[in-house]
Amino acid sequence: MTPNATAESRHTRKxxxxxxxxxxxxxxxxxxxxxxxxxxxxxxGGTAYWLYRDLDGNIQGIDIDKAIGDxxxxxxxxxxxxxxxxxxxxxAGANAALDAGHVSGARSDTALVMHIPEGRTKxxxxxxxxxxxxxRPECSKKDGTTVPSAKRVMxxxxxxQVGPACVVKTVEKISxxxxxxxxxxxxxxxxxxxxxxxxxxxxxxxxxxDKSSGLNMTKGPHRxxxxxxxxxxxxRHGIGDGSDLGRIGLQQTFMLALLSEIKKQDLLGSPTKSxxxxxxxxxxxTTDSDLASLTKLAEFGRSLNGVDPSTMETIMLPVAYDxxxxxRVVAAEPQATQLWKAxxxxxxxxxxxxxxxxxxx
Length: 361
Description:
30% of the residues lie in helices and 21% in strands. With 361 residues, it is α+β, with helices and mostly antiparallel strands. It has a seven-stranded mixed sheet with strand order 1-14-9-2-3-4-15, sandwiched between helices. Helix 5 runs antiparallel to helix 8 and helix 6 packs antiparallel against helix 7. The longest helix is centred in the last third of the chain and has 21 residues, at 244-264. The protein is globular. The model is unreliable at 1-48 and 91-105 (pLDDT under 50).
């Protein structure tokens, strides 16, 4: 195992048992995350906007341009909009008791490059597997100290080691695609949201017994409160083969159930209820400084009105099993280069660039 690998992510797949598994190529997680964001910003741009003005302070902003400087890819005229979306999973504060608090700090458990072509209605999300080994560029921490470049760094460790700006810089380096915006959603923020709407009913696909998080559920429908919802989206050891694949599936199940609950209760049709949702969700948001206000979020949301989340295509960055460390993956070539070139030039993505050698078969 590399020095930068963490015990938490050791179970990306089982090695040597003839049944290795890797993240699947097409996930709805990117579509769901974007839909959640659009629900917020579009509501903020409605007639009840005056209720939201005092929520600006909830949103944390990061000056990505200042943190990275000029060492960035060129913004091409035809490149559309590119947004890096991170789903972070903090183990600090109130979250430390969950998952037994085995991992300190926070990690980017979900990473998506959202590409919205210029003048079109169909978007694409490229997911970067968390256990991908990458070359981390030289970055500056928040306190101004410089962290030197390092090879074979696990992608999801960069967030906790150096910070979100370095994640943006790393993605830009490996893709050659300039990120126009950065959005981070903390899973912990959903705890208060779930409690605020009175819980969410999920259909558990199989019995779950996770000694690490303390989550015990039988197969079938369950009404989850905020604490149980957090356990549900974070459980890994109690389902499937113990890899992150099962957890990603549960996150997808939960987010669909959450959006269904919001729709069923018509929460967005009531200004008072909308405010309650926005209060909880904005507290879970961190964005680049260009989006760090409800006014800017609303304007950005309106600019995406033509994008239909249901038509979004999700693609996993093509990866291959690492030859040195069987618990890790690396970008597969030439597929990865083909994929990023298509995103960078706003061109159709070749079918060959959507296929990953690490099939998990």
